[in-house]
Automatic annotation (TrEMBL):
Domain DUF202: 27-95
Signal sequence extent: none
Origin species: Microlunatus kandeliicorticis
Major place of residence: membrane
Protein name listed in UniProt: Putative membrane protein
Keywords, sorted A to Z: Cell membrane, Membrane, Transmembrane, Transmembrane helix
Compartments in which it is found: Cell membrane
Membrane topology of this protein: Multi-pass membrane protein
Highest taxon in the source lineage: Bacteria
Transmembrane segments: 36-59, 65-87, 107-126
Cellular component annotations (GO), alphabetically ordered: plasma membrane
Length: 127
């Protein structure tokens, strides 16, 4: 038997995901990947919103503490969304490979709560 006869070594990362279980139906893996990419787009929108808020405050000549806090909150939501989407993708992919039920998302309720508080505070400041 030669090296060409052996199956290729799986070099996919992260090993904690790809080294366990069986290869799931590709449709589920692709759906999980599309969801991850949607969360990454959401993270990018949060960061862009934070940068835009800062730029707007500077352009109007009224940079305030509220604008700075709002910008930092939006950018923090972007960071949390980006990191959380990767962690969630790993948890879901691992569950698919092991034939387990998909775990619940901790990211959705946390971001929803932060954004509701942000919207309420922004509305009160606008009045």
């Amino acid at each position: 038997m030669t090296d060409a006869d052996l199956p290729p070594r799986d070099r996919r990362w992260p090993r904690s995901v790809f080294a366990v279980g069986r290869e799931p139906d590709a449709r589920f893996t692709f759906a999980n990947e599309r969801t991850f990419l949607a969360w990454v787009r959401t993270a990018l929108a949060f960061v862009a919103g934070g940068v835009a808020l800062t730029a707007y405050a500077q352009l109007t000549g009224r940079p305030s503490a509220a604008a700075l806090v709002g910008s930092l909150l939006l950018i923090a939501c972007g960071v949390v969304s980006a990191v959380g989407s990767f962690v969630t993708w790993m948890r879901y992919e691992r569950a698919l490979r092991l034939g387990r039920p998909l775990p619940s998302s901790k990211l959705i309720p946390a971001l929803t709560a932060v954004l509701v508080v942000f919207a309420v505070v922004a509305t009160l400041l606008a009045l």
